[in-house]
């Protein structure tokens, strides 16, 4: 066992070879670095920055690797592994030292308990700041600003994304408008789809038969309905309307809802209908909500029906 | 020390400037001794041992590029009107966060380059971690005494995953908003405490006005710090254990065979760092990533269809998509659908992964210390299981892009989702079966692995062999007990 001898490696000599490619790599690196500085000084350009920096870094990297392959010793050696575990004597010595120093805790029982109590309560107290992080979640998840309509005989107007009330003549047959309750434009939970179905909903939920607005357009019966836009699966805005089949599709995980059958899920991971909003027309023919959605909107949670 | 100070022997002072610097530190820290031990540390060199290094280097690059970004980024959700140099969005209302990311992309010199390098480094970081984990799994490197490092490694994976998700959620573009919306749904789906956790994370209901700022302190401080600390522990334990090595070349459980750190291995490692950085720079320059200006600012009522998360999140997205629409009601309480794919699946996956070293020891009854790696073919059951799990998550990853794939190949989405549902059960089983056969076949063809000396149970070496480095040396300057092996370079271990 001898010391490392750099002049004459004990193993097979490095393969050696020409120095030129290594030198070339470093010269490329120098050029890349210089190019980067110039590019930057002239105002920068993304592709050039990438190229120059790649040359600078890659040149150094490949140069160093080539150097090591050509001119550095290749020598495999073996080194023993000492056992990881301490010997029984070492363990015994450790335990003895620990006990010798720790005896004071045994002798001063009361103090030890009190110290433990102090630390314990400190730990308990340090949990409470978590409560500062956010309010009680449930009220906001269970109702939307439409609840104001419940006690208002005039109902609450629906408005579009710019805050304009929606007249019942606005959505064409097969037209879809994203709506909010007046005064709450942009409210996540309250986003609503106002849809003009080309014929009245075939299978409304029991008790919700008159939640839409039945109209007569060019002699045929149609219906405007309002449903929650928040996907009941994971909350994406449901937004793709297939006129042909009167299906509403969520772009996130492709849950598909059949509007003819109370927006019942017919495909994908959603497991309940998009809740419907009871609507009516006010005296001026604008669409108003008569109450809140039938169920909590959006993704489900543990106590959503409690 | 109470004895009189020994007079320093007259030594010749160092002559070079570097020598004087070394002298300064050695007198105060005894550095030469430590540094020499480091130089002479033996590293087995095998290409698959470089995967962890690539992960490490990517992290270094993430911190470097991240610091640059942090000098310009604003983590605010206040509404501003864009007036930067990207014309299509001029006059559009957006959050301060999104605006500052646009400024980084268009108005800060080299800002786009740093953004893209940061994002590419994150993708490579995750890839390197996962492939590194695969190497450790398939070669049995997680077995005793390395269980702790397996646990730390998994934690690093989770932290990196979380930080990647937090990172691209910061920008407050349409894509990141959609990701956060789905993440929020998964969180509130947790029984009992879900809605509370959701409220504590978001400061109320989704989206609220707190989440970007909170993610920001997690992203640039808390998680990177945890990663750095765990990395340090990971590497310290690695040095304590010494590397594993593949069978052959005289590798035994009580030695380590390889090359010294200095100079060949150092050069290769340094070279690899620069090459990793160089490749990332090239990607950052030439390959566009996350062009947020095309997605637009986050708007709750909008979603860009065919929006895709970063690749390493794809399996979660896929799990949400292929899950049948089951929910569970217990006494009127609900377990909603996103719970299965978004919480239960990752929960179970990572619990099993964390416990794997102990599960395997229980199943095989082998609790001995191992330093020589398994060739995957010699552990056909483990290998088959690993392949099945990889195939399962790959199918889920494909499912995460099912709409894109369906459109690209003109398939019916409905049929395609059903194919994926069946596929994520059948394909793993089939591939496990095939892997098992192939392993057996390879074993027959190549014969048994080279014999290795087993350490006696309990990890104690037989008497006479104990004593470790110092005792075995008779050098005037005690150095590590290193024996040159003869002409081993020719007998390079076959890649298993
Ligand atoms: C585990 C390490 C990290 C990962 C995986 C990671 C990942 C990411 C990702 C994927 C993005 C989105 C990039 C984009 O498309 O623009 C991002 C953004 C960002 N990261 Fe990191 N990052 C890490 C560490 C850091 C550190 C240490 C810092 C700062 C000290 C940092 C600062 C930032 C900033 C300021 C942004 C937003 C600015 C922008 O991208 O426009 N990151 N990060
Ligand atoms: S969020 Fe609509 S299907 Fe998942």
Q: What's the topology here?
A:
The complex is a heterodimer of chains A (306) and B (496).
Chain A: H1 20-41, H2 46-71, E1 77-80, H3 88-107, H4 109-125, H5 138-142, E2 156-159, E3 176-181, E4 192-197, E5 213-217, E6 220-228, E7 240-242, E8 247-249, E9 256-258, E10 264-267, E11 276-277, E12 279-281, E13 287-289
Antiparallel strand pairs in A: 2-3, 2-13, 3-4, 4-6, 5-6, 6-11, 7-8, 8-9, 9-10, 12-13
Chain B: H1 17-29, H2 31-39, E1 42-43, H3 50-70, E2 79-81, E3 93-95, H4 96-106, H5 111-138, H6 147-170, H7 174-188, H8 194-202, H9 211-241, E4 255-260, H10 261-286, H11 292-295, H12 314-322, E5 328-330, E6 333-335, H13 338-364, H14 380-399, H15 402-409, H16 413-446, H17 468-471, E7 483-484
Antiparallel strand pairs in B: 1-4, 2-3, 5-6
The complex binds protoporphyrin IX containing FE and FE2/S2 (inorganic) cluster.
Describe the model:
The complex is a heterodimer of chains A (about 300) and B (about 500). With about 300 residues, chain A is of the alpha+beta class. Chain A has two domains: about 20-135, no CATH class; about 145-290, Rieske [2Fe-2S] iron-sulphur domain (Rieske Iron-sulfur Protein), CATH 2.102.10. In chain A, about 30% of the residues lie in helices and about 20% in strands. Chain A contains five helices and 13 strands. In chain A, strands 2, 3, 4, 5, 6, 11, 12 and 13 form an eight-stranded antiparallel β-sheet that branches. Chain A has a four-stranded antiparallel β-sheet with strand order 7-8-9-10, with no helix packed on it. In chain A, a hairpin with a 5-residue loop joins strand 12 and strand 13. In chain A, helix 1 runs antiparallel to helix 2. In chain A, about 40% of the residues are buried. Mean pLDDT of chain A is about 90; it is low at about 1-10. Residues about 455-475 and about 485-495 of chain B have low confidence and may be disordered. Chain B is built from 17 helices and seven strands. By secondary structure, chain B is mainly alpha-helical. The radius of gyration of chain B is 27 Å and the shape is globular. At the A-B interface, helix 2, strand 1 and helix 5 of A face helix 5, helix 7, helix 8, strand 4 and helix 10 of B. FE2/S2 (inorganic) cluster (FES) binds near residues 235, 250 and 255 of chain A. Protoporphyrin IX containing FE binds next to helix 3, helix 4, helix 5, helix 6 and helix 9 of chain B.
